[in-house]
Amino acid sequence: MSNPVFSRQALEGNERILSGEPMTINGAVNKTFILFVCLLLTSVYEFMLYAQGFSDKAAALMMGGFVGSIISFIVIMFARKTLKFMAPVYALCEGLVLGGLSVMFEAKYPGIVIQAVGSTFMAFFVMLALYKAGIIKCTEKFRSVLMISMLSILGIYLVQIIGSFFHMSVPGLFGSGLVGIGFSAIVCVIAALNFIIDFKTIEDGAETMADKSFEWYCAFGLMVTFVWLYIEILNLLAKLRDR
Fold first, then answer.
1. In angstroms, rounded to a whole number, what is the distance separating the alpha carbons of residues 193 and 155?
2. Closest CA to 71 of 89, 45, 98
3. Is the pTM of this model over 0.85?
């Protein structure tokens, strides 16, 4: 849900001048593009399976993608030397998950997927413009407030998941009422603000001449933020449609 990828410790571990080739912003952008291609390929494939009537196969692949994305995420977090290989695996697995989710939402709310994709990229470019203009600065206070907000959201989601096993739910927050819509809107804003941390980490990595492999770490972090924001926007739009 939240993006723990871009931490201060991750950057500090790369703050050294190297004798080899250092990372660049363009390099991080190129790696991000590669991951997006991987995600798009499996998303489209999953979408096509549902469209052709192979719903059982598509559902199995979606579940496999969900498990694979969790495993690859954990491997990357504890063995960052595998990033070059595991980041594309993560993107491919997430593509299967997002493809399946997109089909489910699209079947119930026609046109919602293109709206969610457009809104996600719009949020990305708005955050990039605000960051470049210096309107939103990635200070330590900003990081702290955002981290507390994400942990709070994570706590609410965990309570909801645990409660679902006992047929209980957090009152109002996950419904389509005004409270639920407001909660989803807040989560979307917090998810979008993670892009500010992403941009700052990439910029700092290039300025401190971090290792070339850090480009994959930056690309992976951006991918996590994009995936989270897209899912939250889908959820928000669905609630608005229900109104």
1. 19
2. 89
3. yes
